[in-house]
Design goal:
The chain is α+β, with helices and mostly antiparallel strands. It is built from 5 helices and 18 strands. The longest helix is centred in the middle third of the chain and has 18 residues. InterPro entries: Cell_Proc_Reg/RNA_Proc, FHA_dom, FhaA_N, FhaA_N_sf, SMAD_FHA_dom_sf.
Length: 244
Amino acid sequence: MGLLDSFEKGLERAVNGAFARTFRSGIQPVEIASALRRELDTQAAVVSRERILAPNTLDVFLNPADHKRMLSLGSSLETELLELVQVHARKQGYSFAGPVSITLHARDNVATGTLRVESETAQTADVSWQAAVDINGRRYPLTKARTVIGRGSDSDIPVADAGTSRKHVEIVWDGERAMAIDLGSTNGSKINGQRFTKAPLSAGQSILIGETTITFQVIPKSSRPARREPDASTRIFDAREYGA
């Protein structure tokens, strides 16, 4: 499985995990995540029969005390918020005009325990996409059109898993679309619990080979969209920070 297999499970983990134990009052990370989801739903616009465009630049305004507590969570909060936004967008069928960024602002006129979200669609003309896979906490960029993963040292990405074949699965990436191909492995490969021989692969989907989970990612690579300059007390969370 990937970092999250549903938005609801992510919220449950945020509420019951270390975040909730850290703060007994004031804003909770789960409330920021819910507000971001509502903002996407409220501002999503149908631009064609095949495309629903959601805002990709999201600004969260917090009381300075809440803002300081959120920053103390560091990269854990960054990862959680970005993943939740992207998972919700996939679930709802939303697309983005450019890289997703989330900015937290401290504002004196926002009461403790409350927040305000503003958003816009910031399009970047020169967005390119980098495919990668996450395996055992490490990210591997896919630099070839075909990448073989398996137990053998001659695989492009070797995995230390006795339940996998030497060349177990291949990921084909053409710059826009991805395909997973089982290479005749002994124990088979699964996506969403179903065995496959060849299957299309979407960002965030996970492949199980042996006891190893491979999560496929597509990362936007571009210059940051033009936008207002953040104030000095702002931390910017940007999806591009999670590239290799």
